[in-house]
Amino acid sequence: MTIFNKLILVCIVAATLPVAAQTTLVPSSPKLEATQTAKPAITPETVLASNATIKVTKADFDAEMSRIPESEHFEFLTSRTRIASLLENILVNKVLAKEAIEQKLDQNQKAKDEILNQAEKILAKYRGQQLLREIKVKDFTSAAREAYIVNPQRSLEPARYKLWQVLVTLNGREKEAARKRAAEARDRVVRGDDLAELANEYSEDIGSKRAAGIIDFSELKDFETTFADALKKMKPGDVSNVVETRYGFHVIYLMELMPEKKLTFDQMKPGLLEEARIAYLKSLYDQHLDKIRLDPALKIDADALDTMRPRIPENVKPVYTPPETIKAPPRKVIKP
Length: 336
Hints:
Shape: extended
Number of strands: 8
Largest sheet: 4 strands, antiparallel
Radius of gyration: 32 Å
Structural class: alpha+beta
Order of helices and strands: HHHEEHHHHHEEHHHEHEEEHH
Strand content: 5-15%
Low-confidence stretches: 11-30, 331-336
Distance between the termini: 59 Å
Helix content: 40-55%
Mean pLDDT: 85
């Protein structure tokens, strides 16, 4: 039975154990109850899974979790299935690695080179994180205010529309027949018939039909051009004429409108400050990388590289010939 199956089985048994059985297993003494319910501390050395020769510790688990974006950790850890699968993968890799060492594959030069390469990548990642932590962040209010003034378009929050619609497609019908059916639906909307019933009877747009024909607050950019052009001329309560798009013929009823509004600096300030902070950190970090890339002591063995390159037959014309040298463009330092 795999780790995955064992962990899932443990969860099922715990969940299905009768309440009476659970209560009889625990003594009534408060002192004993406290001892029974106390959870052991989890340390990096805590063994999460093992077999006869291999142990998977919390440190192993954390090292593997570091490869997953931190923003996804919470969702990942709420899934017993994912945790079990990760533990199983770690254990399998550890067993294979142990077998590889027993077979002296760690002495293989290619394996040594790959191990060194991966170690250097990991160390480079941690050095990069250290550099960013060491940068002293200043007050970016002036930079944020300048960004607000220089790009006024960003402060405009577009109008948003809540609407009802039906869509009549050309599937199985002629164009004029589809247009006529859409016009029929429009007449019934104007007459005051129930919108949900009309959407169910006429509409062939699966998405909005599931919501009784309603499309929640959306921006004009979310719609086809002709659809958006008709929508922006409407006021709440208006019913459009039949509108043609590449999908077919629509009838639109505008339910609510949230007009375009200009956001104040204070409303946008948190986001602008964060943008300025990130740009500043990136600027200084890139400067450090440039010192490495543009180091005068840097040497490249062009002859060796040329020897490594595959030879193109003379009768074959390359699609693209890269330049001999590529110089990194100068980087602009962003000041707070």
